[in-house]
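Fill in residues.
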């Protein structure tokens, strides 16, 4: 089941600096015609979920994940504050199977979260993808664990990524996610 989202992060402050000049755009276009973007071109999936700061559950943000498979046991995702072209890159997430998670030391496991409740509750989903197709992959995702770092505290209105990276967590039970973050949609 897909959910409609309410985002407080996509209308954040403008990023300081001059607008991109035509000359810069021309150079970027020329460079992109001859350079390889192999790692970025491996991105094949858009997942949307909600994260909260590991030390402050009241700070919740929408997180758009753009993921690639490293192999069948691991994915890596770039996280943006929206799916829009001007979205800000705010973090990253590593996703591993339960098999790999179980090999981690106990101290390390504390930095990871399960995706089971998010998927089963419809709070981790694939925007725009029909339910039957989503379900095939999300059944796999439900059995994984994620380790998330956010570098940009968009919920505080920061114009730039300030401070140290933050370990983030995901909802794992009822009552954690603020109702205003997400609204049901059939």
């Amino acid at each position: 089941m897909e959910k409609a989202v309410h985002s407080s992060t996509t209308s954040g402050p403008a990023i300081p600096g001059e607008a991109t000049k035509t000359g810069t755009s021309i150079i970027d276009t020329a460079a992109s015609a001859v350079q390889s973007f192999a790692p970025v071109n491996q991105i094949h999936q858009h997942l949307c979920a909600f994260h909260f700061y590991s030390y402050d559950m009241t700070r919740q943000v929408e997180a758009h994940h753009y993921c690639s498979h490293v192999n069948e046991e691991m994915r890596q995702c770039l996280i943006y504050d929206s799916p829009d072209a001007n979205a800000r890159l705010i973090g990253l997430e590593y996703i591993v199977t339960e098999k790999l998670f179980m090999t981690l030391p106990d101290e390390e496991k504390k930095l990871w979260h399960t995706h089971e409740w998010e998927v089963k509750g419809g709070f981790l989903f694939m925007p725009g993808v029909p339910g039957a197709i989503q379900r095939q992959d999300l059944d796999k995702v439900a059995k994984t664990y994620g380790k998330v770092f956010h570098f940009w505290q968009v919920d505080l209105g920061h114009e730039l990524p300030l401070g140290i990276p933050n370990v983030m967590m995901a909802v794992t039970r009822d009552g954690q996610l603020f109702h205003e973050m997400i609204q049901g949609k059939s």
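Residues 149 and 167 are 5 Å apart (CA to CA).
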